[in-house]
UniProtKB/TrEMBL annotation:
Residues 417-492 form the AMP-binding enzyme C-terminal domain. Gene3D superfamilies: 3.30.300.30, N-terminal domain of ligase-like. The lineage of its organism: Bacteria, Bacillati, Actinomycetota, Actinomycetes, Pseudonocardiales. It comes from Amycolatopsis viridis. It comes from the Bacteria. It holds the Pfam family AMP-binding. Keywords: Ligase. This is Bile acid-coenzyme A ligase. InterPro entries: AMP-bd_C, AMP-bd_C_sf, AMP-dep_synth/lig_dom, ANL_N_sf, ATP-dep_AMP-bd_enzyme.
């Protein structure tokens, strides 16, 4: 098939791009939605995606949605999620994807910050104009127009503190500088090349669309002509089946997903030949797990990205580079990088400090609602609170956030390092490490462990295993075996919430 590319030398709105694809490849499949648990598929061609999102846009316009509006999309992964999001952007409005089952207290905090014009949800949301996808199409505005405005997105985050906030992306989603990265040198184009993202791929969206990475790369993929294969819900079995069934070229995964897939029986015997890039991020990936994926796919097809929703900068690394710089997340792309101490003095290579980045893109790259701006330097370097170091060649290595760092007897202990060692045990399905208060040592290392199904794993067996893995001061002093380590659908873990539950400080 001949790639249907745009010459991104002028402004192209998101709606214009969808319309162009509907005209140039009307009968090609744009979206395949795979239901859980049966794996049944619903398909939309580009013509159908354009026409149905037009209908959604007309229905939203009839409720007053326009370029200055904000629409909360409180839906699970679905065809309707895609139709609503594309429709909102056709109107030039801003989308806030929201977890459909978010606890009421946190949801209300986010909605008070967002002040949405419309909430699209299957369930009623008291106090707001709330529409189901079916209701959107019951009243239409025959005079609505495809907006030339520059729409946007905002995602909610609790970060490490557990206090919800909204992170607005002021970059224009239809702008070639933001979406394609051309003349102004925005970071997306070099990032896209490094992580194996190109025009006209088949992309698997296995994570929840309320999370920034699946949302961002999925909807950017549509702009670039991707055939999106969207799972209603992640299961490792469904991922492998869809890779084979649809010839997936590009997929994002978090390490929790990667581990569950790799532990499937017979995974090495499945057909992975279509994969051009498995790229991962959002959490620290154990080195042994990454090497297993490199053995399965080949190093050149395993990529890693480090960045933040705030878009202050990013780094990326290919598998071949990683083997020469094991544990690194790569060199900065589209930004400048410094490692600074508590007084914002630059640290030499090899020393761990706070990661500061300065984006090359002019102007602000994020706006918070519900939080003060991220700390910054007088010359424009910004941090979101991550720790790391660089080597002599400028490659970045991530440590843990300051709030997650455990200081026991004056020694710094990084939870991710202890978790990586725990997860090497074949009977450990998941693990989280936190620091419990201690009157003498300040903190002690506590491991919260989820045994594999059918395992008879004990704390004593884990303790014996760990003695050969880490220095004595890093070893967990206590172990807690639970049925499930509490992660969200995106694989994210809030250690602060785990700590609060165990200390009664919630």
């Amino acid at each position: 098939m001949t790639p249907h590319r745009l010459a991104f030398d002028h402004y192209v709105s998101y709606g214009e791009r969808i319309r162009h694809l509907a005209t140039s490849r009307p009968d090609d499949v744009a979206l395949t939605f795979v239901t859980h648990p049966d794996g049944a598929a619903v398909e939309l061609t580009w013509r159908e995606l354009d026409a149905r999102s037009d209908s959604f846009a007309s229905g939203l316009a009839a409720r007053g949605v326009g370029p200055d509006s904000l629409v909360v999309v409180k839906l699970r992964n679905s065809v309707e999620h895609v139709l609503t999001t594309v429709a909102v952007w056709k109107l030039g409005a801003c989308v806030v994807p929201l977890r459909s089952d978010m606890p009421a207290r946190e949801r209300e905090q986010i909605l008070r910050l967002a002040k949405p014009d419309v909430v699209v949800s299957l369930d009623p949301v008291p106090g707001y104009e709330c529409l189901t996808p079916a209701e959107i199409e019951t009243r239409q505005d025959p005079d609505w127009q495809l907006a030339d405005a520059r729409p946007g997105k905002a995602v909610c985050s609790g970060g490490s503190t557990g206090v919800p906030k909204l992170i607005f992306d002021p970059l224009p989603w239809g702008n070639p500088g933001a979406v394609a990265g051309t003349a102004d040198g925005h970071a997306l184009e070099p990032l896209a090349r490094t992580i194996g993202f190109r025009h006209d791929q088949t992309q698997l969206v296995a994570g929840p669309l309320y999370h920034n990475a699946p949302f961002g790369w999925g909807y950017w993929g549509l702009f670039f002509g991707h055939h999106l294969v969207v799972l209603e819900r992640f299961t490792p079995e469904m991922v492998v089946d869809c890779v084979e069934r649809y010839g997936v070229n590009f997929m994002f995964a978090v390490p929790t997903m990667m581990m569950r897939i790799m532990r499937l029986d017979g995974v090495a015997d499945r057909d992975w030949s279509s994969i051009e890039s498995l790229f991962h991020g959002a959490a620290s990936c154990p080195r042994w797990l990454k090497k297993q994926w490199m053995d399965l796919l080949g190093p050149s097809r395993v990529r890693e990205l480090y960045g933040a929703t705030e878009a202050i900068g990013a780094s990326a690394i290919t598998g071949d580079e990683w083997l020469a710089h094991e544990g690194s997340v790569g060199k900065p792309l589209g930004c400048d990088l410094r490692i600074l101490d508590d007084d914002q003095r630059e640290l030499p290579a090899g020393e761990v400090g706070m990661i500061y980045m300065r984006p090359h893109y002019p102007g602000p790259t994020y706006e918070y609602r519900g939080s003060e701006p991220a700390p910054s330097t007088s010359d424009g370097f910004i941090t979101v609170g991550d720790f790391g170091r660089v080597d002599d060649e400028g490659y970045l290595y991530i440590a843990d956030r300051r709030v997650d760092l455990i200081i026991s007897g004056g020694a710094n202990i990084f939870p991710a390092e202890v978790e990586e060692a725990l997860l090497e045990h074949p009977e450990v399905a998941d693990a989280a490490v936190i620091g419990l208060p201690h009157p003498e040592w300040g903190q002690t290392v506590h491991a919260v462990v989820q045994p594999a199904d059918g395992s008879s794993l004990t704390a004593e067996a884990l303790s014996e295993f760990m003695r050969g893995q880490l220095a004595a001061y890093k070893l967990p002093k206590t172990y807690e075996l639970i049925a499930r380590v509490p992660r969200d659908e995106a694989g994210k873990l809030r250690r602060s919430a785990l700590l609060a539950e165990r200390t009664g400080s919630a």
